[in-house]
Design brief:
3 helices; 139 residues; N-terminal domain of TfIIb; GMP Synthetase, Chain A, domain 3; alpha+beta; three-stranded mixed sheet; elongated
Length: 139
């Protein structure tokens, strides 16, 4: 995997993935930013949510569940020190579909957290306390 991050000005950077997609990142005003893009640490949290969501949807589809919605609501806390690393990250999945089996949804979330989501597992190994839960909403 390759990526490039180029400085624009102030605390603004443009990141380009090896697959050719770009995203603007910008720092807070305290560090010279203008709040015109994601903070880098926000990108990290979004990456965890995206990685785990892909797993959950894929596992449910492979299990022949009729999933029509998957939303990861993420709450993260950081330590009050420098570096301000993540202390906790909680992923709450809101999953919708027709006749979803709660046991299968629970298992999909667990498999993502424990076996498949590289981003989540990497952060856990670095000491971040990761938690997950879910709710099923009728569609």
């Amino acid at each position: 995997m390759k990526a490039t991050v180029k400085w624009v000005d102030g605390a603004m950077f443009v990141g380009e993935s090896g697959s050719g997609h770009s995203v603007v990142m910008d720092g807070s005003e305290e560090v010279g930013g203008r709040n015109m893009g994601f903070r880098p640490m926000e990108m990290l949290v979004l990456g965890v949510g995206g990685c785990s969501s892909i797993d959950v949807v894929s596992i449910l589809k492979k299990g022949r569940q009729q999933v029509t919605r998957c939303e990861a609501r993420i709450e993260a806390t950081r330590v009050d020190a420098v570096p301000a690393i993540f202390e906790t990250i909680h992923l709450h999945f809101v999953v919708g579909g027709k006749d979803l089996d709660p046991a299968r949804v629970k298992r999909a979330v667990e498999l993502s957290a424990e076996k498949y989501c590289s981003a989540s597992i990497m952060l856990q190994k670095a000491g971040v306390r990761m938690t997950h839960d879910f709710e099923i909403v009728p569609e």
